[in-house]
C-alpha cells in the first residue's frame, strides 16, 4: 500500500495509546478501539480475479513443467489457453464497472485497484491478445523451453491485466515492470540465435533507461504532492506550492517518458524493428498489441486522472509526439525492400509505430477538450488489436514455408492459400482504412474527429497526409497477394511449347494457427458489420 495508508495507521495507533489511561484495563481500551475506524481492508476477490488467476496459472505451469515428460509438454500450452479463457470469463460479472478494492479506509476516498469500464475493456483486450498469442505459439514451441515460455507469457499477461486497474503510481510501476520483464526474456528465448539475443539486449537496455527516467519523475511527483494515489495527486496538483511547481512539471514530463517508450512513440521507437524481427513471431505479435496496450493504458491513467492540472504541459507534447510518430512510422514502412529477409515483419513493425501515432491523437485531444476523447483511443486500439494479430497470424503461416518472411514471399499467396490471402488482404485494408475494412475506416474517422473537435486542426491535417502515405504500402502488399506466383508462365498450353508448371506445393496449416486466423477474421468482419460495438466507447466516459 502507499505511504498515505501507513501514515494513517501510525497516527491511529498513537491516538489509541494516548487515549487509553493507565489502569483503566481492557474495557477502556476496547471502547477506544471501537471508536477508531478499521484500517483492515476487505479484498474484493472478484474484482482482482483476472490478473490473479493469470498469475497463479503462471506458477502452476512453471511447477508442472518440472514433472511432465518431454512428449507431454504440449499440455502446458493448452493449460495456458484454458487459464486465459477463464480469466476472460471473469470479466463478465465485472462489466458493470463499479468495483474497487485496496481502498484507504480513512480520510479521502482513494483506491489502489478499480475495475471500471476502462479497466474491463483493456483487460479484455490484453487477455484476448494473449489468448491469440498462445494459439500462434502452440506449434512453434517444440524448439523452445516450453515451461519457461508459457510461464513468461502468463506472467507478462498478468502484469498487463493489472496495469489498467492500477490507481496509484506504485501499483502502476509494478504492473508495468511485471508486464515488461518477462517480455525481455521472451524476445531472447531462442537459444543460440544471435539475432534474438541482440534484440532482447536492445529491448532490455532501452527499456531500463526509460524506466529509470520514469521512476525519477514519479519520485518528483511524490515529493511535490506527498501521495501516490492518482486521484489524490490530481487534487493536490491543483494548488501545489509555487516553490514546488517546477518540480511537479518536471515530474510530469519524466513520468510520461516511460510510457512513451512502451507505446513506441517517436523518438522512443528505435527498439521496435529489430526487436520484432529477432523475437519469435508470436511474441512480436504480442508486443505489437498487448505491449502497446500496456503503454497506452498507463499513459491515459497518468495524464487524464493524475495530471489534468498540467494539461498545458502534456497536451502539446503528446500532440507533437503523435505527429512525429505517425510520420516516422509511415515513411520508414515505405522504404522496406520486398526482397530483404524478414521485410514483412519489418513492415508490420513500422506500421505499428505509425498506428501508435494515431492512437496518441485522442489522448492529446483530451488535454484541450474532455476526457471522453479517450474513448476514441480505446475504440481504435480494439480494432487495431484484432486486425494486427490477424496479420501476424497469416505471417506465421507463410513463415512455415518461407522462413525468410520476405514481402516477395507473399507473391501469389492467393494461388496456394486463397482463404489466407483474402484474410490478410482484409486485415491490410482495415489498417489502411479502406472498404471492406469498414471498422478501420470508422476508427480513423473517430480519431480524426477527436482532433478536430479539440481544435487541433494542424494535427488532423498531418494525420490525413499520413493516412494517404500508408495507403501505398498497404495496397502494394495487398496487390502482391493476388499476382501470379514467381516462375509461373503467363500462358500455358500445348501450343506454347513450354512445359506445364507444377502446382505449388501446399502444407497443412496447424489447427491452432488456423483457429487464430479464423477468429480474427470473424471478429474483423463482425466489427465491420456492426462498428458501433467498439465505436460506442468513443462517445461515453470510461472512468
Outline of the structure:
By secondary structure, the chain is mostly helical.
Structural notes for this entry:
With 543 residues, this protein is mostly helical. It is 68% helix and 2% strand. It is built from 21 helices and two strands. The chain has helices spanning 3-19, 25-35, 49-64, 74-89, 117-137, 146-162, 169-187, 194-225, 230-238, 242-262, 272-278, 281-306, 311-334, 343-366, 374-399, 413-416, 418-432, 438-453, 457-481, 511-529, 532-535; strands at 99-103, 111-115. Strands 1-2 form a two-stranded antiparallel sheet. Strand 1 (99-103) and strand 2 form a beta hairpin. Helix 13 (311-334) packs antiparallel against helix 14 and helix 15 (374-399) packs antiparallel against helix 17 (418-432). Residues 1-35 and 489-504 have low confidence and may be disordered.
Low-confidence stretches: 1-35, 489-504
Largest sheet: 2 strands, antiparallel
Give the fraction of residues assigned to helices.
Answer: 55-70%
| Backbone structural class | mainly alpha
Amino acid at each position: 500500500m502507499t505511504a498515505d495508508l501507513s501514515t494513517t495507521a501510525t497516527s491511529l495507533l498513537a491516538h489509541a495509546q494516548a487515549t487509553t489511561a493507565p489502569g483503566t484495563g481492557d474495557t477502556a481500551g476496547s471502547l477506544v478501539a471501537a471508536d477508531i475506524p478499521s484500517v483492515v481492508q476487505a479484498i474484493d476477490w472478484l474484482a482482482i480475479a483476472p490478473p490473479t488467476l493469470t498469475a497463479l496459472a503462471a506458477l502452476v505451469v512453471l511447477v508442472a513443467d518440472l514433472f511432465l515428460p518431454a512428449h507431454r509438454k504440449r499440455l502446458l500450452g493448452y493449460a495456458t489457453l484454458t487459464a486465459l479463457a477463464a480469466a476472460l470469463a471473469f470479466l463478465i460479472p465485472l462489466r458493470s464497472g463499479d468495483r474497487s478494492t485496496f481502498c484507504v479506509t480513512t480520510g479521502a476516498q482513494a483506491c489502489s485497484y478499480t475495475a471500471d469500464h476502462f479497466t474491463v475493456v483493456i483487460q479484455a483486450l490484453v487477455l484476448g491478445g494473449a489468448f491469440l498469442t498462445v494459439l500462434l505459439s502452440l506449434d512453434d514451441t517444440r524448439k523452445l523451453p516450453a515451461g519457461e515460455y508459457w510461464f513468461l507469457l502468463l506472467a507478462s499477461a498478468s502484469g498487463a491485466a493489472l496495469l489498467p486497474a492500477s490507481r496509484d503510481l506504485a501499483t502502476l510501476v509494478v504492473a508495468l515492470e511485471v508486464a515488461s520483464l518477462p517480455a525481455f526474456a521472451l524476445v531472447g528465448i531462442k537459444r543460440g540465435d544471435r539475432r534474438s539475443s541482440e534484440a532482447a539486449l536492445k529491448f532490455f537496455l532501452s527499456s531500463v533507461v526509460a524506466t529509470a527516467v520514469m521512476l525519477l519523475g514519479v519520485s518528483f511527483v511524490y515529493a511535490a504532492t506527498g501521495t501516490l494515489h492518482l486521484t489524490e495527486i490530481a487534487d493536490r496538483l491543483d494548488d501545489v506550492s509555487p516553490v514546488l511547481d517546477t518540480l511537479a512539471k518536471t515530474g510530469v514530463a519524466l513520468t510520461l517518458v516511460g510510457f512513451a517508450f512502451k507505446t513506441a512513440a517517436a523518438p522512443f521507437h528505435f527498439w521496435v524493428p529489430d526487436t520484432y524481427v529477432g523475437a519469435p513471431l508470436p511474441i512480436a505479435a504480442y508486443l505489437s498489441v498487448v505491449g502497446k496496450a500496456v503503454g497506452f493504458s498507463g499513459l491515459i491513467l497518468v495524464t487524464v486522472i493524475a495530471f489534468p492540472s498540467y494539461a498545458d504541459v502534456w497536451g502539446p507534447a503528446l500532440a507533437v509526439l503523435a505527429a512525429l510518430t505517425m510520420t516516422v512510422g509511415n515513411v520508414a514502412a515505405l522504404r522496406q525492400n520486398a526482397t530483404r529477409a524478414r521485410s514483412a515483419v519489418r513492415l508490420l513493425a513500422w506500421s505499428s509505430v505509425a498506428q501508435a501515432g494515431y492512437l496518441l491523437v485522442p489522448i492529446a485531444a483530451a488535454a484541450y477538450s474532455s476526457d471522453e476523447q479517450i474513448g476514441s483511443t480505446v475504440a481504435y486500439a480494439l480494432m487495431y488489436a484484432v486486425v494486427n494479430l490477424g496479420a501476424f497470424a497469416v505471417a506465421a503461416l507463410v513463415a512455415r514455408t518461407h522462413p525468410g518472411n520476405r514481402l516477395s514471399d507473399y507473391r501469389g499467396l492467393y494461388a496456394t492459400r486463397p482463404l489466407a490471402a483474402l484474410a490478410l488482404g482484409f486485415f491490410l485494408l482495415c489498417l489502411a482504412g479502406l472498404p471492406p475494412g469498414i471498422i478501420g475506416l470508422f476508427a480513423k474517422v473517430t480519431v480524426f474527429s477527436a482532433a478536430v473537435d479539440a481544435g487541433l486542426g494542424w494535427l488532423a491535417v498531418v494525420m490525413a497526409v499520413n493516412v494517404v502515405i500508408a495507403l501505398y504500402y498497404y495496397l502494394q502488399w495487398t496487390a502482391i497477394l493476388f499476382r501470379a506466383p514467381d516462375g509461373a508462365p503467363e500462358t500455358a498450353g500445348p501450343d506454347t511449347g513450354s512445359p506445364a508448371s507444377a502446382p505449388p506445393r501446399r502444407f497443412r496449416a496447424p489447427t491452432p494457427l488456423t483457429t487464430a486466423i479464423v477468429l480474427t477474421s470473424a471478429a474483423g468482419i463482425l466489427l465491420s458489420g456492426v462498428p458501433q460495438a467498439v465505436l460506442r466507447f468513443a462517445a461515453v466516459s470510461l472512468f
